[in-house]
């Protein structure tokens, strides 16, 4: 990286840190006050641990309902597959576009994971 680019980057970082130092505290207080009703009292590490356990076990308790929903979705896909002769071109096109979109998001995620490169090698 050239020194000119480095100096520009350093200047931008310095400017950003000044803005954060000047407005960060007031923004933090404003957001906290606006969302005060979400804060559990007393705001301690023990309370955070308790809430974390609540979230974990609540999610575990929701698994049977999610599984039932998944089974219903799979049954509807099986039913569509059985009646595929009656499938309209529009429905097939929508399914193909959905599959293409999923593949595109997968590819984008792979590129992001490799550091925004196509081959995996950085120059």
Descriptive report:
By secondary structure, the protein is an all-alpha fold. Among the domains are: 40 residues; 31 residues. 76% of the residues lie in helices and 0% in strands. The chain is flat and about 65 Å long. It starts with a helix and ends in a 10-residue tail after the last helix. The model has no long low-confidence stretch (mean pLDDT 87).
Specify Rg, calculated over alpha carbons.
25 Å
Helix content: over 70%
Q: How far is the N terminus from the C terminus? A: 12 Å
Order of helices and strands: HHHH
Instruction: Give me the number of helical elements.
Output: 4
In what range is the share of β-strand residues? under 5%
Secondary structure class reads mainly alpha
Number of strands: 0
Largest sheet: none
Question: What brief labels describe this structure?
Answer:
single chain, 123 residues, mainly alpha, 4 helices, 76% helix, 0% strand
């Amino acid at each position: 990286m050239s020194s000119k680019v480095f100096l520009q980057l350093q200047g931008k970082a310095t400017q950003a840190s000044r803005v954060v130092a000047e407005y960060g505290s007031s923004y933090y207080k404003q957001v906290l006050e606006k969302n005060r009703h979400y804060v559990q009292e007393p705001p301690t590490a023990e309370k955070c641990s308790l809430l974390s356990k609540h979230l974990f076990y609540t999610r575990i308790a929701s698994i049977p309902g999610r599984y039932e929903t998944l089974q219903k979705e799979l049954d509807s896909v099986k039913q569509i597959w059985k009646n595929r002769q009656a499938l309209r071109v529009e429905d097939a096109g929508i399914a193909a576009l959905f599959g293409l979109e999923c593949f595109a998001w997968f590819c984008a995620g792979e590129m992001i994971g490799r550091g925004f490169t196509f081959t995996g090698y950085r120059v």
